[in-house]
Amino acid sequence: MLGKRILVIEDEKDILEVVRYNLAREGYKVRCARNGLDGLRVAQTELPDLIVLDLMLPEMDGLDICRFLKADRKTEDIPIIMLTAKTEETDIVLGLELGADDYITKPFSPKVLIARIKAVLRRKEKTETSKDKAVNIHGLSIDPVRHEVLVEGSPVRLTLSEFKILHLLASQPGRVFTRYQIVDAVHGEEYSVTERAVDVQIAGLRKKLGTAGKYVETVRGVGYRLRD
């Protein structure tokens, strides 16, 4: 992780300095911006490895920045961690649905922020190098090429939708996916999936996975994740 470039977009000077200091101490190269427009410009021109993004910013808010970056092919793959005082579920869900990778609410622990940053960067690396490789975690083996799932070596029969949901969650363990993101990932002409149906399929998936089903966690008011 040493040398990774992180852009911090935060208008509160004290918080910005705390984040900058702790990230620099961990060996990251830190770039800072104190308003939304400057942050967007730096993100588009310097293409950092990750962005820590406040939602309440002058000139342009964080959700609009996230929307712009994820709509641009040049910046759409840059991971974003939302750092915000907003605790309302709708703001968090909207940010995640726009493409943010994680969120932390203020007040926060610098150690937790650094741990989240490391986890998101690890997930990005794994996603880039193993899209078609089998995922092995918590006794689960998920092979997207063979369309095969094993739990402690024993095969489990899943529907196509269930398989896609499990593979999505397992490919980025620890990341919270909203119901909308899950619907978008498994959508296809041969089957229909709705946000309400996701809850039913998650319940069925947990049952089929047996003891491994406990690793599929509900994040209240947001969505689902596979425990890291």
Describe the protein in words:
With 228 residues, the chain is of the alpha/beta class. The protein folds into 2 domains: 125 residues, Rossmann fold (3-Layer(aba) Sandwich), CATH 3.40.50; 92 residues, Winged helix-like DNA-binding domain superfamily/Winged helix DNA-binding domain (Arc Repressor Mutant, subunit A, Orthogonal Bundle), CATH 1.10.10. 43% of the residues lie in helices and 21% in strands. The protein has 8 helices and 12 strands. The strands form 3 sheets. A 5-stranded parallel sheet has the order 2-1-3-4-5, sandwiched between helices. Helix 1 crosses helix 5. The longest helix is centred in the middle third of the chain and has 20 residues. It is elongated, with a radius of gyration of 18 Å. 33% of the residues are buried.
Total individual domains: 2
- CATH superfamily of the largest domain, by name, is Response regulator
Strand line-up across the major sheet:
2-1-3-4-5
Under CATH, the topology of the largest domain can be stated as Rossmann fold
User: What's the order of the H and E elements?
Assistant: EHEHEHEHEHEEEEHEHHEE
**Contiguous runs where pLDDT drops below 50 for at least 5 residues:** none
